[in-house]
Amino acid sequence: MFNNSSKIMFLMILMTGTLIAISANSWLGAWMGLEINLLSFIPLMSDNNILSSEASLKYFLTQALASAILLFSVILLLLNSNLNFEPNNSFISMMILSSLLLKSGAAPFHFWFPNLMEGLSWNNSLILMTWQKLAPLSLISYFMNNWLLLISIIASVTIGSLGGLNQTSLRKLMAFSSINHLGWMMTAMQINQSIWLIYFLLYCLLTFNMIYYFNLFKISHLNQLFSMYFISKPMKFFMFFNLLSLGGLPPFLGFFPKWMVIQYIVMNSQLMLLLILMMTALITLYFYIRICYSAFMLNYLENNFMNNMLVNKFTMNSYLILSFISIFGMIFLPMFFFI
């Protein structure tokens, strides 16, 4: 991607579109930022193969539908404020929220997301799961205590955990994991604005760590994880520890944002929501641990050394540093409170 000047240009436009949407002081400005973001991501998706063409068409149709609903809702809102036209305000807010949930890929508007991920490269998947969620989530954070948001939280954590149980494709597994984390982020939004941003940043770090590894060794399916005969055992341990960190298993760094959300939910006495979140988090951890158990316990061919010809030294060192942060970050976090 970074050797192609046109892709760098579209990446810059994509980032600009997101920043316009976040910093807009009107819904029309936010819609414009989302449109710029959408139209700059489609050229990034095209990799001259059938799967990427299909994925870009699916993405365009879904996002165009969400944008049309958002624009229609904004026009209704303007009519309501300027011309004393009296549609139901709660109905308008529900329409705006549903369009933003569709844009972010949250359940029950998630059906396009796993299928789309299947046709993307790992680099584009990373952009879709991290940066592309920033603008819709920032706009969703304006809706507090909305019943549709609560339904979406429960649906996202449930579908995100159950959907990943029978997946063999790592892209779909990461997509359902992303939907599950979206539910946690929207829960954090209802409690505190800064908590969901911390959650989002840590989620981006952990997702980048996993996708960096998958892209490095060109891994797309579970059976490739099991039979990685060209990768040494320590590297396998690092990869699966990162996977468990993404799932939120203590004492890894991925547990820290969930710990914060759980603490604030308990303080707000939303115990029923907490029960649903924790039960679904256990299901997510179950299929992550099942993958790790299968990879380590079954007798596969593997090396006791790392072949230095596969990747260069800088790439491997940067991955190991990121893995160290992901695995041991939780231990060093308390130090910041005493500095």
TrEMBL record:
User: Top EC class per UniProt?
Assistant: translocase
Return the EC number.
7.1.1.2
Say which domain of life the source belongs to: Eukaryota
Q: Give all residue intervals belonging to the NADH dehydrogenase subunit 2 C-terminal domain.
A: 285-336
The UniProt entry lists membrane topology as: Multi-pass membrane protein
Quote the subcellular location field of this record.
Answer: Mitochondrion inner membrane
Which keywords does this chain's UniProt record carry? Electron transport, Membrane, Mitochondrion, Mitochondrion inner membrane, NAD, Respiratory chain, Translocase, Transmembrane, Transmembrane helix, Transport, Ubiquinone
Q: Where is the NADH:quinone oxidoreductase/Mrp antiporter transmembrane domain?
A: 24-284
Listed under catalytic activity are:
a ubiquinone + NADH + 5 H(+)(in) = a ubiquinol + NAD(+) + 4 H(+)(out)
Query: What are the GO BP annotations of this UniProt entry?
Result: mitochondrial electron transport, NADH to ubiquinone
MF (Gene Ontology): NADH dehydrogenase (ubiquinone) activity
Which stretches are transmembrane?
A: 12-34, 59-79, 91-113, 147-165, 195-217, 237-259, 271-296, 316-338
GO annotations of cellular component type? mitochondrial inner membrane
Keyword match Electron transport: yes
The cross-references to Pfam families, in alphabetical order and at most eight, read:
NADH_dehy_S2_C, Proton_antipo_M
Primary location: mitochondrion
UniProt function note: Core subunit of the mitochondrial membrane respiratory chain NADH dehydrogenase (Complex I) which catalyzes electron transfer from NADH through the respiratory chain, using ubiquinone as an electron acceptor. Essential for the catalytic activity and assembly of complex I.
Q: Which family does it belong to?
A: Belongs to the complex I subunit 2 family.
Q: What is this protein called?
A: NADH-ubiquinone oxidoreductase chain 2
Native source organism of the sequence: Paralimna concors
